[in-house]
UniProtKB/TrEMBL annotation:
This is Aminoacetone oxidase family FAD-binding enzyme. Residues 3-401 form the RsdA/BaiN/AoA(So)-like Rossmann fold-like domain. Keywords: Coiled coil, FAD, Flavoprotein. Residues 102-129 form a coiled coil. The lineage of its organism: Bacteria, Bacillati, Bacillota, Clostridia, Lachnospirales.
Length: 405
């Protein structure tokens, strides 16, 4: 019987433990926090969006974009739904976003814990892993209290994001101890800081729009949805979705900009025509009230100030140049990104163990036989919507299955 040691009892670590134990391995699951799976409790705002039925390679990011596809095909979103159904979690579908029927993340964690107990997985909590090494007889794990041994080792210790849930980045050091290299680890699914001062007065405004990240003038990513304006910059789901590109550009000391489109349903020409009709319908209305029903007064006032249009000016007095200027500001609001919020505000990390050093069929190290990886520790991160948990389930399943062989 193989002994499989797993460092990290988050989503991927628990899935790896369950899969390996079901395959007949003796499993030791090591967690440095008092509670296993704590990060699961905060997913989906406490409701646990545990997968998504829409799966596309573009939903996962990595320096090696093809890597995740092979692993995800071995344990799909439908497999995840079936897996949890067998554990007692009946799910519901909200436009492809899959949640437990109870809308309780705690239920997902509870059934995982129950399955670990049923399979008699040995769980060590409040156990810090200080170092790992590989020898002829397998792996040695140095904790704060003892040296543990196992035939196969799975590193599933997570990243550095959301440290309040227990993620501290220690897994990266363990990977490096075993001669692996890292793609730069950076915050992702995170808020962005902007250089302009106008955001202080726009804080709290939510507006539909799209955001594109440009690095040295080249578009790296784009998304549409509800943008949140904060006292320091921009937030909201579409900002989160493209934030990894900003983080990487800043890390590489390149010029990073966001271009906000506050009327994405219109082309430039369409918006100009729309404004023309609005002027025709409300010729005597002052510009202070011209955008009522379209934008928050503070945001509308910002457009006017940047276009140098007085609030007292009547709509019928606008020149063609001023209308074109308004179209430009509404459709192409360019802002300079200075930094991301720190890891504690990020939902996940971009970067991690370089996938070039990992077998894309098995999650086994190409450097150290018998060493496997799972979850956020690897250079794969998903967009919002259940994709990071799906990566955890898929990579944990494959790593656990292969480690037990």
């Amino acid at each position: 019987m193989k002994t499989v040691g797993i460092i990290g009892a988050g989503a991927s670590g628990m899935m790896a433990a369950i899969t390996a134990a079901r395959a007949g391995a003796a499993v030791l699951l090591i967690e440095h926090r008092p509670q296993i799976g704590k990060k699961i409790l905060s997913t989906g705002n406490g409701r646990c969006n545990f997968t998504n039925t829409f799966q596309d390679p573009s939903c996962y990011r990595s320096d090696n974009p093809d890597f995740a596809k092979t692993i995800l095909s071995q344990f799909t979103s439908q497999d995840a739904i079936a897996f949890f159904l067998k554990l007692g979690i009946y799910s519901k579908n909200r436009n492809g976003y899959i949640y437990p029927y109870s809308d309780q993340a705690s239920a997902v964690l509870e059934v995982l814990q129950q399955e670990l107990e049923r399979l008699q997985v040995t769980i060590l909590t409040e156990t810090e892993t200080r170092s790992v090494s590989c020898g002829k007889k397998g792996f040695s794990i140095q904790t704060g209290h003892e040296i543990l041994h196992c035939d196969r080792l799975i590193l599933a210790a997570g990243g550095k994001a959301a440290s309040v849930t227990g993620s501290d980045g220690s897994g990266y050091d363990l990977a490096k101890q075993l001669d692996h290299h890292l793609v730069p680890v950076l915050p992702s699914l995170v808020q962005l800081h902007c250089a302009e001062t106008c955001y202080k007065q726009l804080a709290g405004i939510r507006v539909q729009g799209s955001v594109a990240i440009l690095v040295d003038g080249i578009i790296q990513g784009q998304d549409t949805g509800e943008i949140q304006l904060t006292k320091y910059g921009i937030s909201g789901i579409p900002v989160f979705q493209v934030s990894r590109f900003a983080a990487r550009g800043l890390y590489e000391r390149k010029k990073v900009e966001a271009v906000l489109d506050f009327m994405p349903d219109f082309s430039d020409e369409g918006l100009t025509a729309f404004l023309g009709v609005r002027i025709k319908n409300q010729p005597e209305k002052t510009m202070k009230h011209f955008f009522t029903g379209l934008y928050h007064p503070k945001l509308a006032g910002t457009f006017l100030r940047l276009c140098r249009i007085p609030e007292t000016k009547r709509a019928c007095e606008l020149t063609g140049v001023e209308i074109a200027s308004l179209t430009e500001k509404i459709k192409h609001f360019c802002t300079v990104i200075t930094k991301t919020n720190p890891f504690e505000n990020a939902q996940v990390c971009a970067g991690g163990v370089d996938t070039v050093e990992i077998n894309a069929e098995t999650m086994e190290s190409n450097i150290v036989p018998g060493l496997f990886f799972a979850g956020e520790l690897v250079d794969v991160d998903g967009i919002c919507g259940g994709y990071n948990l799906q990566w955890a389930w898929s990579s944990g399943y494959v790593a656990g299955r292969e480690a037990a062989k």
